[in-house]
Amino acid sequence: MFIGKYDKSVVVTYLGVLSTMLGIYFILGYSVPKLTGAFICLMISGICDMFDGKVARMCKNRTAEDKEYGIQIDSLTDMISFIAFPIVTLYGVSIYFDVALNPYITILVVTLFTIAGISRLAYFNLGANSEDGPVKYYSGLPVTTTAMIFPTIYLLHYVIPNSIFVSIYLGLFIVIAFLFIYDFKIKKPKKNWWYITCSVLAIIMALALLYLKVK
To answer: Looking at 9-13, 21-25, 92-96, which range is the least confident one?
Structure first.
């Protein structure tokens, strides 16, 4: 009846999309962006991305088509959650701290960031650098790391002037774009340890953002 798949194997991926859309609304839906809520949503999207494959593999009787669909929908979700969404946070940061960005420089920076991000996703969708057996190293910086990098950098605004913070935030997009496509090796952590560590860090970060917001 409907095009696409909507079973439990992809529900966590779609929850990540929901979190992303809510985070974007926190920025675009208010006259003054609600950055704390947006960054918490970004981290939630990252947690959903981390667990969606694990949940999908727990679903029995998945066909080859189901698996391929999961791979494709995960990649498309990454484009929205970890490339487009961070760019929206840049807009929110500029508005919230009332610091005007040079439009020409900003367009160039976010375009480079976007091209680097989607190029990376396309490259690995083709199975580039695939290995027999489990992958032991990441080549370049995974796009999903933006879910923790940007909320962490956001904390800097509590200790440095707004204009400097916004400039650093913009410059971070250039650094991350380079790391997306630069072929260096990052040792891939063991999954169970990684799941626990990232979840705990996300909770600590969210609590810190909420505490500093209401303090």
So the answer is: 9-13
